Amino acid sequence: MSSTQEQIQDRGNTENETQAKSSAFLQPEEHVLSTLEHDGSRRWLYPRLAPGNLWKARRIVAWVLIAIFTLIPHLRFADKPLVLLDIPHRRFTILGFTFLPTDTLLLALAMVSLFVTIFLITALVGRVWCGWACPQTVYMEFLFRPIDRLFEGTKGKGGRPKEPLSGLRYWGRFLVYLVLCMFLTHTFLAYFVGTEALAQWIRQSPFEHPIPFLVMSFTTGLMMFDFLFFREQMCLIACPYGRFQSVMLDRRSLIVAYDKNRGEPRAKGKRNLPVVSNVGDCIDCGKCVQVCPTGIDIRNGLQMECINCTQCIDVCNDVMDKIGSPRGLIRYSSQEQLESKTKKILRPRLIIYPVVLLITFTLFGIVFASKHAFDATLLRSLGSPFIIAQDGKIENNMRLKLVNRTEKETEFTLKLIGAEDAVISLQDGEKLVLKPEETKTFTFLVRFSPSEAPTGKKDIQLEVDSSQNAVRKMKLTLLAPRSYSGK
What we know:
Blueprint: H1 3-26, H2 53-71, E1 76-77, E2 80-81, E3 83-86, E4 91-94, E5 97-99, H3 104-125, H4 128-132, H5 135-152, H6 167-193, H7 195-203, H8 210-230, H9 233-238, H10 241-248, E6 255-258, H11 260-263, H12 287-290, H13 311-323, E7 330-333, H14 335-340, H15 349-369, E8 374-380, E9 387-388, E10 394-404, E11 410-417, E12 423-426, E13 432-434, E14 439-448, E15 457-466, E16 471-479
Antiparallel strand pairs: 1-2, 3-4, 4-5, 6-7, 8-10, 9-10, 10-14, 11-13, 11-15, 12-14, 15-16
């Protein structure tokens, strides 16, 4: 063999070795994602159904939540929608009270309280929101997956269908999904536009309200994409909650956990007690993986993908009953309890979170109680701080921003307190009248004699009275030339 041929052969051997090493490096031992195959293609999940006690309880909670979500837009409190999030007009109505853009502090306190509440609940009972109350889980597991099982012919047991959907069954399921998503979209939009406006749009042609129609169509398309295609990947990829659990959970938080001390080492096959002492209760049947809606193995410990749906608990308890072992191999527990067999609940964060909540709730209550039937903001007009009129009087140009928070037309009157020689003059005799929930800025002059502010500055009060028997008082500073004697 010539030297050239030897070089070519050596080069070929080197390339083969490099490809082999590269292939070995790129091939993971396990799934990177439970919905991703080794070659990068989508792995579709068909979880089996384990109708145990926890699943039945979750089903009741799910249907109650669906009913609440559907009914809230139609309910009214104090002649107002129970919940109406009017974003274009920047008015949020909740339980009969309308929050306006001026309620920034209330909104901030409410958001802080919401986040701290989430932290507290997660520290106590883990991801109970994900498995029991999250709309993604509720609708996916108790509305759309049952529809899948009906059309796939796996109703009652779940799992992979014998053959993929096609023809009439495929389009039948698609049509049912479309109708349900349109219903959910219209219900969702009712929270933002109200049921009256929504009912009017439904009866009209889409050309009469193109923007709401496009919003409805886009939202329906997103729901179809989510529940028909994206599905459990919303929890695995898009939702940040699982990634935050490392911060919000601790070793005493309640989680769905597999008891390794009791289950290991595993031994396949059915058996009855007593068993060999060095064999655990887990018979490695794999049913906990088959029922998992996110496709993970709970026996690998706490994982980001676990949504605490408790299906593995139900199916494992059923298996334990059949083999004669006690229930609870997979159960609600904590990492610390599984390792040390001690159950300790109290820890610093369970003291800090309630204290923070108490503070924010107290502040919210104080600010909320101080709200009046109207808001008033006094501003000084731009330009010269004062004007000397021809008759020797001093004029201060002011602006008053009024917000009518009531559902009735309201008239306001102004009164100065602390200045006997000062009078208010509105532009062109304008009346201070606001329509329901209207916001308007009025301009007025304060005329006074120089003797009212001999030092060039004097603080008095402006009293604003409304026809709804509400009163607001605020400081008004009279500005004049220092030591001005007038004509």
